[in-house]
Amino acid sequence: MGRAPRITESGTVYHLLNRRVMRLPLFEKDADYEVFERVLGGSLARPDAPRLLSYCLMPNHWHVVVQAGERTDLSTWMQWVTVTHTHRWHSHDHSAGEGPLYQGRFKSFPVEQETPFLVLCRYVEANALRAGLVERAEAWRWSSLWVRRHREAEMNRCLSDWPVERPRNWLAEVNRPLGKDGLEPVRQAVARGTPLGSERWRIRIAGRLGLDLTLRPRGRPRKA
User: Residue 4 pLDDT more than 80?
Assistant: First the structure.
């Protein structure tokens, strides 16, 4: 599981991810997705909450992209989100006391603004399209892409402006395959908690957030 930052740095963008234990279904019907959206939206009123930039809810996991504020504490905020959602999920499913809902602590990694941020948001908002759940990314009801296109949606008021300008052809970009060069860095960041961005930025932010180990190659070092 990816290493979470030891501290939360104001102004920094983070990708957050968690999934159902044993990869079992987390959302099976519209009401399940709606419950999580209400929990997520309600959590943003907390003093330790970040600004919500993008998200996508998938059948057995979710992705959230946020920007930290001066009082943000990602660990305590995420704990509130997952614990509250777990209680409501079990209550709705009449399964209280039947074990954990999530596989464990959430995964996270910081993201450099500008191009890496846009690549990440393309990755997040195109999740359902890549999984073959829809023919067009904007058709997936449970994502920030759909919400921004339907301004009357309740979650629209929960979304904050991006720290960079959204390209005018954003919809076309999200529906265009990201390609290996775009996918691999994001997938590595998801797997290891590695900062996503340019080499210089990754080294600098890893040092500040205590993520130096995520930049080291895996496996035993070669013998001299």
Answer: no
- 119: which 2 tokens? 């690549």
Distance CA 113, CA 215 (A): 19
Strands 107-111, 13-19: pairing kind: antiparallel
**Token digits of residue 108:** 């996270």
How big, in percent rounded to 5, are the helix, strand and coil portions of the chain? 45, 15, 40
Three-state DSSP state, 167: coil
Query: Checking DSSP bridges between strand 61-67 and strand 13-19, what pairing results, if any?
Result: antiparallel
Contact 49, 144 (CB under 8 A): no
Give dist(CA 186, CA 119) in Å, integer: 8
The answer to whether 40 touches 146, Cβ cutoff 8 Å, is no
Topology of 13-207 in CATH?
Alpha-Beta Plaits (3.30.70)
Average pLDDT over residues 188-192: 93
**DSSP state letters, 53-78:** EEEEEETTEEEEEEE--TT--HHHHH
Share of the chain above pLDDT 70, in %: 90
Cα separation values, 212 from 11, 16, 97, 112, Å: 20, 19, 38, 16
Map residue 30 onto helix, strand or coil: helix
Query: In this model, does residue 1 exceed pLDDT 50?
Result: no
Measured between alpha carbons, how far is 43 from 3 in angstroms, rounded to an integer?
Answer: 23
Positive/negative CA dihedral, 174, 175, 176, 182: positive
Question: Residues 23-40, buried b or exposed e (16+ Cβ, 10 A)?
Answer: eeebbeeeebbbbbbebb
